[in-house]
Amino acid sequence: MTTQPTPTDPRTAVLHAATTDQTWDLLVIGGGASGLGTAVEAATRGYRVLLLESHDYAKGTSSRSTKLVHGGVRYLAQGNVSLVREALHERGLLKQNAPHLVHDLGFLIAAYKWWAAPFYGIGLKMYDLLAGKLNLKASRYVNKAQALERTPTLKKQALKGGILYFDGQFDDARLAVTLLRTLEDHGGVALNHAPVVGLIREGGKITGARFRDGETGQEHAVKARAVVNATGVFVDDVRRMENPSVKPMLSPSQGVHVVVDRRFLPGDSAIMVPRTDDGRVLFAVPWHDHVVIGTTDTPLPEASVEPRALPEEVEFILKTAAQYLDPAPTRADVRSVYAGLRPLVKAAEGTDTKSLSRDHVIRISDGGLITLTGGKWTTYRRMGEDTVNRAAAQAGLPERLSLTAGLKLHGAAAPDTHLADHWRVYGTDTARIQALPGADAPLHPELPYTEAEVRWAVRAEQARTVEDVLSRRLRALLLNARASIEAAPRVAAILAGELGRDAAWQEAQVRAYTELAGGYVLN
Known about the structure:
Elements: H1 10-18, E1 23-29, H2 33-44, E2 49-52, E3 68-69, H3 73-77, H4 81-97, E4 103-111, H5 116-131, E5 140-143, H6 144-150, E6 161-169, H7 172-185, E7 189-191, E8 196-202, E9 205-212, E10 219-229, H8 235-242, E11 250-261, E12 269-273, E13 282-287, E14 290-294, E15 298-299, H9 311-322, E16 336-345, E17 360-364, E18 370-374, H10 380-395, H11 421-424, H12 430-434, H13 451-460, H14 466-473, H15 476-479, H16 481-499, H17 503-518
Parallel strand pairs: 1-2, 1-10, 2-7, 4-12, 10-18
Antiparallel strand pairs: 3-6, 4-6, 5-6, 8-9, 9-10, 11-14, 11-15, 11-16, 12-13, 13-14, 17-18
Keywords: FAD, Flavoprotein, Glycerol metabolism, Oxidoreductase
Family: Belongs to the FAD-dependent glycerol-3-phosphate dehydrogenase family.
Domain FAD dependent oxidoreductase: 25-379
């Protein structure tokens, strides 16, 4: 009987590259939208880049969005025309550069008052104009019959018609993984499960950081000409590593979404409610054959790695949805509920979080630590470009042009409409994954994913844990939390085979995932 050789752990080579004795041009702390965008921007300019992520790529806010690539209709209503124009421009670029991840989606604003359609129609024509030549499709009025054809579950009573406009939709965590692959394609190095535990200072200047390997506990020091703090809602924690008495930059705000079956929104459009009872907008968006409904805006005193939805937030979403949908989802219909934290930059006393700017902010400390925060997924590329411009100037790096506006991201290909959503997001990698063992073996009857995708996640996408796989490489946790818990033992077994782990490791992984995913289930 021959024994199977222990597989080579892909992390070994990445850790070796990260700890090679050299001075990086740029060290980026944080593996969400802003950190990955900054790292890709720097690597494509030819700078030597290392990114360190404390948990996993897009573990925080960057995997918990409303799944929209959009200009922000609400920001237009607030009068922030420049932010909307920039976001619409970036929306157009992202659709061109990642066609396997971004697609057009129609959004219906239902009109139940005689004045609603002309009122919102005028605003959305301005939205079209601001997008310029990168506009997706022109907004237009639809009558009652056309509105119901696109969204059959809309409440019919008193419906006058509506306005149909177009924005982009995407898979946030899959874009993060795609940026990771793009970074690696251009010679950058990124390591997850590698929390930064301290900054290195020489002569009053920040010259690097110390990080801990989350799997072995071993600490390493890395040097860099510039250090970027792109840790989202946790930027103040890193800033305090340099100066414990620094004033906080952020006012964290929580946004909650619920996920329900597609039958509640069976047409080919999303719904946008322009003004809820608390003055926010609410979306119901088709996504991976489910529907995402949200969001809320709840100020929080501090950030947490695993924020939890408050009962009143879930109640608000379901109550608002019931004003527009028939039948409307109830608590029993919720497959998953998730919460994300917005890194909103502090404003004057008394300003509510829903009116705080979504613009990104770059601050440089006396010691040279570059902090990037604020912003949103749609403008991730512009955030990275602005940050690298500042970092290169500060560190005296050779001046190089930005290439990312026209950069095709890893796997970019015209979407194959014959493929299911979960295959389409891999782009040109799809055939390679489908050639792996288990491509026809479903992980769970209520989930679209296969065993081959788990193997790929480990071999090519730096997945290390059951959570990494089921939450972010696959979107099982958000689509159906209970089914994902039932799939966890099989995922743990595949991971153990790939990484050479024992039965005790598998059991610990399943326990940890079951506890985490329980927070996404409505009891």
